[in-house]
Amino acid sequence: MAILRNLTNVTDDVSSRKVDLRAFEKRAGVRFHSLNLLNQAFSHRSFANESTGTIENNERLEFLGDSVLGLVVAEYLYETLSDRPEGDLARIKSYVVSEESLAEIAHELGVERFVLVGKGEESSGGRQKKAILADVLEAIIGALFLDSGFRAARTFVLRWIRPQIETVLQNKHRKDYKTLLQEFVQKQYKSYPRYHLEKRTGPDHDRTFWMNVSVNDKTFGPGKGKNKKEAEQSAARAAYRALAER
Fold first, then answer.
1. Residue spans per domain, the chain
2. DSSP conformational letter for 227
3. Using CB atoms within 10 A as the burial measure, which of 98, 120, 125, 142 is most buried?
4. How far is C-alpha 126 from the geometric centre of its chain's CA atoms?
């Protein structure tokens, strides 16, 4: 049963987006009662800030969707992997609900074609940014929960998240080297890795970050990435491979 709601229009004329939104529904295998809710899920803060009308961004829906996603994945792992300890379930869950995993699903759904971003974000490639795509996917989950209830949201999540879970179970996923390195360093040296920004390069709209990581008085890197998180992962990968896989 759909949850009762009192929502204002997300855009002044959502009908102009109807064809696109219905195309997304077909691709995603969902059907919204309220296209306004779905459109709000695609509305990034930068778009809402630059619009002249009263437009809600997707951040509240993202907050809700994050919780629904976490519950669905936790329940599924608990029920299907009854022989796995809590630590394994937590590691699997941490990957499948990560920005990396959600952005991959968003790409499969073609979310970048439908997301609404401001001119600044558009010019800097915002609709391709992993963080924005992952946030939109969570907002869609939150919107579907409000629109059609938990069962519909659960069905949608599992349809698209199961392949990510299988990838992890087959050990074919992209590793979270920061976590792996931290666990290794804690166990071996009773300390923690320390990350340092070496430099930034490129213009403001296309930055590249370079990070080093220090472990037990040794420095590894630099790793590079389009943001600090990616650069830290790159540096952590170099350190982990040098220390734990030698």
1. 14-169, 177-243
2. S
3. 142
4. 14
SS3 at position 108: helix
Q: Which CATH architecture has domain 177-243?
A: 2-Layer Sandwich (3.30)
The residue from 56, 62, 66, 135 that is catalytic is: 66
Is 56 an active-site residue? no
Active site residue 138: yes
pTM, full prediction? 0.71
Distance CA 124, CA 133 (A): 14
Token output for 239? 């350190």
User: 207-233 burial by CB neighbour count: b if 16+ within 10 A, else e?
Assistant: eebbbbbbbeeeebbbbbbeeebbbbb
Q: Which residues touch 75 (CB under 8 Å, ≥6 apart)?
A: none
CA 198 to chain centre: 27
CA 148 to chain centre: 22
Q: Closest Cα partner for 227 from 134, 163, 157?
A: 134
* List 121, 138, 147, 232, catalytic entry: 138
Instruction: Go through 134-169 and write b for each residue having 16 or more CB atoms within 10 A of its CB, e for each that does not.
Output: bbbbbbbbbbbbbbbeeebbbebbeebbeebbebbe
**177-243 shares the fold of 14-169:** no
Predicted confidence (pLDDT) per residue in 150-200, tens digit: 999 999 999 999 999 998 888 766 667 888 788 889 888 899 999 999 999
State yes or no: cis peptide before 222, omega within 30 of 0.
yes
Contact 36, 24 (CB under 8 A): no
Contacts of 221 by beta carbon, 8 Å cutoff, 6+ apart: 198, 210, 211, 212, 213, 234, 235, 238, 239
